[in-house]
Amino acid sequence: MGTLDLVSGSLVGRGAELDELLGAAVDGAAEAGAVRVLVGSPGIGKSSLLRALAHHARSAGHLVLDVVGIEAEQLLPYAGLAQLLRPVLGHADALPPTQRRAVLTAFELEDGPAPQPFLVALAALGLLVEASAHQPVTVVVDDAHWLDQPTQEALAFAARRLDRDRVALVAAVRPGVDGPIAAGGLPTLPLAGLDVDAAHEVLDATAPDLDAVARAWVLREAEGNPLALVELPVAWRLHRGLDGDEPGFVPLTARLEHAFAARTGELPAATCDALLAAAVDDEDGTAEILAAASALAGRPVGVEVLDAAVAAGLITYDARRVAFRHPLVRSGVVHAERPARRHAAHAALATVLGEQPYRRAWHRAQSILGPDDDVADELERSHVIALRRGSVATAIWALERSARLSTDSAVRGRRLLLAAEHAFGLGRADLVDRLVAAADREQLSEVDRARIRWLREIFNDGVPGDPARVVELCRSAEDSAAAGEVDLALNLLLAAALRCWWADTGPAARAEVVAAAGRVADGAGPEVVADPRHLAARAVAEPVLAAGPVLARLAEVVLENITDPDALRLYGMAAHAVGDPVRSVDFLGRAERGLRAQGRLGLLSHVLNMLGYDLIELGDWEGAAICLDEGRRVAAETGQPIWSDGSTTLSAVLHAVLGEHDEAMAQAARAEHTVGGRRLTNLLACVQLARGLALLSAGQYADAYLALRRMFDPADGAFHLTERYHAVGPLAEAAARSGQVSGAAAVLRALEAETDAARAPILVPHLAYARAVLAPDDQAEDAYRDALTLDLVRWPWARARIELAYGAWLRRQRRGVECRTPLRSARTTCDLLGATSWAAQARAELRASGEHDDHHGPASLDVLSAQELQIARLAAQGLSNREIGERLFLSPRTVGSHLYRIFPKLDVSARSQLAVRLGPG
CA-CA distances (angstroms) from residue 630 to 184, 186, 663, 888, 914? Predict the structure, then answer.
């Protein structure tokens, strides 16, 4: 294929790798997307492969979008993405309004509120897909590890969703680097060194005059690295080896940097100034680089000074931009200079960036070593610009650097804590801990000390057996409120309450949270009581004793008047905590839609988990499967392991009610292993619920009773105040079928007495069912009839179980005709829900009564994956592919591909048939 030449981009020894890229990214992408990440050390040939790929893609009629990561640009939010997508921004008007506004604000093309990163990522995906509707698109990203963090996150997000679109994305990274693209689980193509024959071919073409000694040295030191094979002969000629005839060990990358830097030794001073200005500049504009070089030199520098660097093989340039031949040239130039010279170059750039305050502050911060309050203040102001562009990571860096440059200890601490709060928003527990530890060494006010307590708490919910910590957080909340920091006070109260939720901290600690919430409200005024955090804190801390006032307050909330999705989430959390799944689903369903629209995926995973659990209780198991599947994926994508563990645990419960015994028990065991070490009692309670339900559905009633009984024992690690509510009915059923009626009746009498002051809505159908199945025959019929008079419109699963138990009781009383009506109803509902084992019980009872059973088809949950079911449901509601894609963070083409597979699975041929086939819900 010709000789490897780093300027022309032709290749030696890379035929197999190029063929794979062309097959996937050019041939394959014409029909469906492809993603590859090239992994190789500097100089290994990644850039040459990418140039060859881009050439072939253009020749095949593809639109090629390319960008090169530059180390100096890492702190400029969305700099790489803006450059990459500039040719397709004309499609922005086709995006949903929220996405269009987010991406244009991030690129500083429009003014607007700080965009959510996931909305920008979704907009980037949308622009690529829109462009691919006109022609296939190939995205080429070189040195992706040096792109700014927001750009990397957006591209990784898009890459995971390009499997059915005419878009290929190929990125190159160095081995061992971290980041969303390098460590994002995307398909990789490793690049090793050239084999011996290919290495000789390169030397024959580029350095045929080398003698045998030099040739052997170059081959040995290059280790098959194509760039080294080209550049080390030049170094040999100049210096006979880099450090003498037999250089000691130096890493190859450093050796190549040294080789490039050595070429600057003979260049004119003005050329060296221009090279250094270009190397530290975060942009590549020729005019800006020459202006900075003039400031560095102290005299005007013209474009002609760049010619010597071109002749030395270090750069290329034109009237618009200066480009280094390789990233190692740039780093070699920087590392060859003294620190004072590097600082001076940054200072020179700052002087020419007067109308760009963000970049000016960044270069000023790089131009000094010791404290400088003026630069620190400017850097703190600049972090707002980073936030406005949607780059929280850059804002954190600006605040942390600002703190290091500050002379006042309290100011340093305040800036570090502000950075830590932003790190919390990113879900970065490691970064929060480091920043908080640094702030803790400073002289802080009491309010900032309270802020430290909150920040240390938010990633450590659920440390068991620590009521003293709960009391400490409550005191801090009261002190903060007294100092006028009501927002911080509410955050501290909710943090204290969550400790009581995740693990049992005892009645005194729970009571203290509620009391502290009351004292904060008394001191701060009625606006505190109106804040949903105040209600959520009371509900989560004391879900039994505070249930009455919490339920009364929730009844006053007009759902339609709440537009803030976070407020909806908190109201839903409160309803979930006290055991009102109907109201919880109503709040959380609206919160889910709002959080999707805003691209707030971190909070979306919380909502999906709570929503999924309540949907299991209400019998919408298809909806629950959708929520838990997506909740797990979103939690993993946003780095929230506790919520991912929650999804796994609740999925075990779902498998159990579906009658999938083996899978339920396996998932319960995995969940217990994961969360058991942290003694998170609420999740351990869910593990026992899953086991009990799985054993119940399998007919192992004695074992089911023992598993569920643990949830009601305050001394057991699986005890939780309100998670046990879900087990009331199943415990009674297991007891009735295993001869444990008296034991279960005693447990339920105690629970009724405990909750008598304010009965949680979830307990109403559960206790009614339990009374009926545990009642003696002379009282059972009245108990069943009382249970069936309840309003169970939103509780089909509860009603079906009551009907099944009542029908079975009637048959045992030899009332064969009467039993069939409730049994038929129970069978039909169980079929619709997918409750296979309970449906089988209803059929067995009907056969025993003398009725022939009719055929039933599979529930849609049996034939569709969770994501397919989610798409089918939305399509059945009348949403277009574009609207579905916007909801689920998928491209319209991907949605269409899913529907193409869904239709034959459901035996339908049109979208209008989906609603009928999927049934209620």
Answer: 18, 19, 19, 9, 21
Answer whether 690's CB lies under 8 Å from 655's CB: yes
- Category of 908 on φ-ψ map: left (φ > 0), alpha (ψ -120 to 50) or beta: beta
Query: What do you get for the CA distance between the two ends of the chain, in Å?
Result: 60
Contact 140, 50 (CB under 8 A): yes
pLDDT in tens, 290-333: 999 999 999 999 999 999 999 988 999 999 999 988 878 888 88
Question: Residue 611 belongs to what H/E stretch?
Answer: helix 601-618
CB distance 848 to 811 below 8 Å: yes
Say whether 571 sits in a helix, a strand or coil.
helix
Reading the block at residue 752, the tokens are 């009724």
Q: What is the DSSP letter of 264?
A: G
**Alpha-carbon span 573 to 639, nearest angstrom:** 21
Q: What is the pLDDT of residue 305?
A: 95
b/e map 591-626, b = 16+ CB within 10 Å: bbebbbbbbbbbbbbbbbbbbbbbbbbbbbbbbbbb
What Rg do the C-alpha atoms of the chain give, in angstroms?
33
Burial class of residue 7 in the structure, from the number of CB atoms within 10 Å of its CB (0-12 exposed, 13-18 middle, 19+ buried): exposed
**Nearest residue to 713 via CA among 732, 694, 688:** 688
Among 584, 595, 489, 580, which Cα is nearest to 533's? 489
Closest to 179 (Cα-Cα) out of 202, 159, 203: 159
- Cα separation, 347 vs 373, in Å, equals 16
Inter-CA distances, 194 with 43, 50, 328, 636, Å: 11, 17, 19, 38
pTM for this structure?
Answer: 0.75
Q: Which residues of 858-867 are buried (b: 16+ CB within 10 A; e: fewer)?
A: ebbbeebbbb
Assigned token pair, 132: 């691919």
Confidence check: pLDDT of 237 > 70: no
Backbone angles phi, psi at 620, to 5 degrees: -95, 80
Amino acid of residue 307: D
Cβ within 8 Å of residue 244, ≥6 positions away:
none
Provide the b/e sequence for 494-526 (b: ≥16 CB within 10 Å): bbbbbbbbbbbbeeebbebbbebbeebbeebee
The pair of three-digit structure tokens given for residue 281, joined into one six-digit string: 């500049």
CA distances from 289 to 148, 275, 349, 708 (A): 21, 9, 8, 72
Tens-digit pLDDT profile for residues 85-130 = 999 999 999 888 888 999 999 998 988 888 888 889 989 999 998 9
Beta bridge partners of 142: 68
Q: Which residues pair with 172 in a beta bridge?
A: 38
DSSP per-residue letters across 112-160: -SPPPHHHHHHHHHHHHHHHHTTS-EEEEEESGGGS-HHHHHHHHHHHT
Closest CA to 759 of 576, 583, 544: 544
- In whole angstroms, give the CA distance from residue 427 to residue 602: 8
Tell me the C-alpha distance between 48 and 8, whole Å.
8
Place of tokens 């009551």: 802
Does an H or E element contain 865, and which?
none
Single out the residue of 626, 631, 628, 573 nearest to residue 602, CA to CA.
631
Give the angle subtended at the CA of 217 by the CAs of 333 and 9, to the nearest 5°.
55
DSSP string computed for 286-330: HHHHHHHHHHHHTS---GGGHHHHHHTTSEEE-SSBEEESSHHHH
**Residues making up the chain, counted from first to last:** 921
Query: What is the rounded distance in angstroms from the CA atom of residue 145 to the CA atom of residue 154?
Result: 13
Instruction: For the chain, give the percent of residues with pLDDT over 90.
Output: 49
Q: Best-predicted range by mean pLDDT among 7-21, 159-173, 268-282, 852-866? A: 268-282
